[in-house]
Design brief:
The protein is α+β, with helices and mostly antiparallel strands. It contains 3 helices and 9 strands; from the N terminus they run H-H-E-E-E-E-E-E-E-E-H-E. The protein has one domain. The strands form 2 sheets. Strands 1, 2, 3, 4, 7, 8 and 9 form a 7-stranded antiparallel β-sheet that branches. Strands 5-6 form a two-stranded antiparallel sheet.
């Protein structure tokens, strides 16, 4: 399994020098399109605790109640390096369905799931459409944080910060 073993946002951005420009461009687009989604370094959850263990760049911090009745931190939008591509996790719902579904197949993505997509390079993406999706995610996060869900399982977010 591919692992980005770093301890800071700066180290995450510098982990792969070839893909650093793609991360920086995506970061700039998110900051411009969805300023309400504040950037942070998502450290993952420790072993033995509920939640995803991998590290990523998070935008818009929320906490959801896991099945174990414990709060778990998760980003409204997460960006993660994978071995051969970059993944974007979108934990926002619109009209009862993951927001990403209304954009799926039109972003220039390499692969797509119900609430995540992957791409190889920033240039592969339809930046205009992606900016619109991020702006919509930021608006939903700001006005209706309960419409942000855990990307894996649909547990409703109960609080943001």
């Amino acid at each position: 399994m591919f692992r980005v073993d770093v301890d800071s946002l700066e180290d995450y951005l510098n982990f792969d020098s070839k893909r650093k420009p793609d991360l920086q461009k995506l970061d700039k687009l998110l900051g411009t399109s969805a300023p309400a989604l504040k950037r942070y370094f998502h450290t993952g959850t420790p072993a033995g605790h509920p939640g995803m263990r991998f590290k990523m760049i998070g935008y818009g911090k929320l906490h959801y109640l896991a099945r174990a009745e414990k709060y778990v931190e998760w980003p409204a939008v997460g960006v993660a390096l994978q071995k051969n591509y970059i993944s974007v996790y979108l934990s926002v719902v619109k009209d009862g369905a993951p927001l990403l579904q209304s954009y799926s197949g039109r972003l220039g993505e390499l692969r797509v799931g119900s609430n995540n997509f992957s791409f190889r390079t920033y240039e592969d993406l339809d930046v205009r459409l992606l900016a619109g999706m991020f702006a919509e995610a930021g608006q939903i996060f700001s006005s209706h944080p309960g419409r942000c869900i855990l990307a894996h399982g649909g547990t409703k977010a109960l609080r943001t910060n």
